[in-house]
What we know:
Structural class: mainly beta
Radius of gyration: 19 Å
Number of domains: 1
Amino acid sequence: xxxxxxxxxxxxxxxxxxxxxxxxxxxxxxxxxxxxxxxxxxxxxxxxxxxxxxxxxxxxxxxxxxxxxxxxxxxxxxxxxxxxxxxxxxxxxxxxxxxxxxxxxxxxxxxxxxxxxxxxxxxxxxxxxxxxxxxxxxxxxxxxxxxxxxxxxxxxxxxxxxxxxxxxxxxxxxxxxxxxxxxxxxxxxxxxxxxxxxxxxxxxxxxxxxxxxxxxxxxxxxxxxxxxxxxxxxxxxxxxxxxxxxxxxxxxxxxxxxxxxxxxxxx
Length: 267
């Protein structure tokens, strides 16, 4: 009985601490949560950033870290110049709604950023699909400029070790990207097309798919849902196959209770 009470107190203390709790079991040591599926592993670290870790469909092992997809919930402040600024999370501003787990199909937590704004995040894994939702709870002292809840999804540069320009173009020529906008217009691109060219043609994105040869036939699908949309953040002149970031924002007027959901599928 005493052991049960002590365990309950320990669990309660970790859930409501100022930092997200951490696991001690491999391969999730120092992570807040972990999940191991057939197609991918999925973890959330104590800084509130999630990683979708593809499983190589031949070796059945995790791909190296430079092939991981980053999913980072953030609070964005729009400056008077129109530039979006990512507000820094407070190290002691976290609250774990769900306890740490290495079998976490659902993860929920709250965070606080500089300026005192608070937000809530919910992540759910269903088969080969990951759903992420959330909302701004409190603006804190950030009342001078518009702020909003968003999720930054980063597809990394899996060709970072390819330095020769001709070799790079040969490697990315088979990569394909497809986008569908909120207004239902469509666009398709090859991997060597510069990211800034894609961004100019693709705004208010509703759905996207990336087919990158590094993942050996597996594809990523990104769906912004009925009340959300993506934009390509900070477009560069590099080929889009060298990585890009989609910023998902739910419509604040329709996102009461965090109804909007971002879906990522690895298939």
